[in-house]
Amino acid sequence: MKKSKLLALVLVVVLAAASVVGCGSKSDEVSVFKLANGSALGDERDQSLQEFAKLVDQKSNGTMKVEVYSGGTLGSWRDTIEGLEPNIVQIVCESIGTLEAYSPTASIDAYPYLYDDYDHYKRVMLNGEVGQKIMDAVAEEGNFVLMGPSNRGARIVTSNKKIESADDLRGVKIRAPGIQMYIKTWEYLGASPLPMDPSEIYTGLQQGTVDAQENPIMYSYGNAFYDVCKYLVLTNHVFSTDVFIFNDKYFNGLPEEQQKIFREAAKEAGDFRTKLVEDLEAETIELMAEKGMEVLRPDLSGFQEKLADFAKEFPNLAGLVEEVHASR
Question: What are the boundaries of the signal sequence (predicted)?
Answer without folding.
Answer: 1-22
